[in-house]
Amino acid sequence: MRVKLIGITVALAVAGTAWAATVRDEPIQPLQPAKVTNPGKVELGKKLFFDPRLSRSGFISCNSCHNLSMGGSDNLKTSIGHNWQEGPINSPTVLNSSLAVAQFWDGRAATLKEQAGGPIANPGEMAFTHDLAIDVLQSIPGYVAEFKSVFGSSRIDIDKVTSAIAAFEETLVTPNSAFDKWLQGDDKALNARELAGYKLFKESGCVACHNGPAVGGTSFQKMGVVEPYKTTSTAEGRSAVTGKDEDRFNFKVPTLRNVELTYPYFHDGAAQTLEEAVEIMGRLQLGRTYSKQEIGDIVAFLKTLTGDQPSFIMPLLPPSSNDTPPPQPFAK
């Protein structure tokens, strides 16, 4: 049976019967669940994502700054690196990051695979080297066996490590938010205030940058269009990658999926609350001063973008061997 409703018709099969569900014709589209084609690789990547032995201290893992219990970020203004170094920039969420145009605020990594190798060798983050990280993994029999099972060879290299981490991160999508349900035709999924907030979000022009399934993440935009953005952060934005002065203060537009979980906001973490972030963005990007009621409406809408969080069994990491180099948690 085929049901024709206003919107985009998407063919589905349920219990062997073909039917059609309506997706509202909006600038934002529903998130689709991740499709896992290589579960062994994903499981290996999950272990590496949680393994602090990829850091010099043996204390910092990918999950330290992209905590999957906290919206895929660390909820700090800037992240903490090796020896409690203060990071230069706010940690973006890893959730739905596979949908982004590039990785990092300045887009210096084109893919999740490329991004995964960066923090390991960054002296201000995990403070290791790729060679030393590989030496650690190669000394752990459980990892050697698992890499052989996934890649067909017991030789471990950074390309395989980052490929596995990226495979796991690609599964970290968060579908089934209240807004997704509304997009798919459930009129009861949003209340009047949330709908009013979405209407204002569209009419104000927010959707020019925050659109698509990830509600952002697909372009670089200047921070401070109508008014200059004032900050003590030294981050230059896209110009640090391109070398072009016109790209200064251009940053990747963040996804608004799960945004109520990923505070504080902006590349410098300067906005602690969603209300503050909405007020600043309206004024600096759109030249609009929102009332308290309007800010509340938009925030109510933004909270409908929180979807199903990643749910899985925590990995049991393989034990180190006698040959595994010991961590150096207090090394300068």
From TrEMBL:
Per UniProt, the keywords (alphabetical) are: Electron transport, Heme, Iron, Metal-binding, Oxidoreductase, Periplasm, Peroxidase, Signal, Transport
Give residues annotated as binding heme c 1.
Answer: C62, C65, H66, H82
Its localization reads: Periplasm
Q: Is Electron transport among the key words of this record?
A: yes
Q: Does the keyword Transmembrane apply?
A: no
- Family annotation (InterPro entries): Cyt_c-like_dom, Cyt_c-like_dom_sf, Cytochrome_c_Peroxidase/MauG, Di-haem_cyt_c_peroxidsae, MauG/Cytc_peroxidase
**What are the protein's GO molecular function terms?**
cytochrome-c peroxidase activity; electron transfer activity; heme binding; metal ion binding
How the cofactor is bound: the record states:
Binds 2 heme groups.
Q: Quote the record's binding site residues for heme c 2.
A: C206, C209, H210, M281
Q: Where is the signal peptide?
A: 1-20
- One Pfam family assigned to this protein is CCP_MauG
Q: How is it modified after translation?
A: Binds 2 heme groups per subunit.
According to its UniProt record, which cofactors does this protein need? heme
GO cellular component terms, alphabetically, are: periplasmic space
Task: Tell me where in this chain the Cytochrome c domain is found.
Answer: 40-148, 192-306
The name this protein goes by in its record? Cytochrome C biogenesis protein CcsA
Which species is the source of this protein? Parazoarcus communis SWub3 = DSM 12120
- Lineage summary: Bacteria, Pseudomonadati, Pseudomonadota, Betaproteobacteria, Rhodocyclales
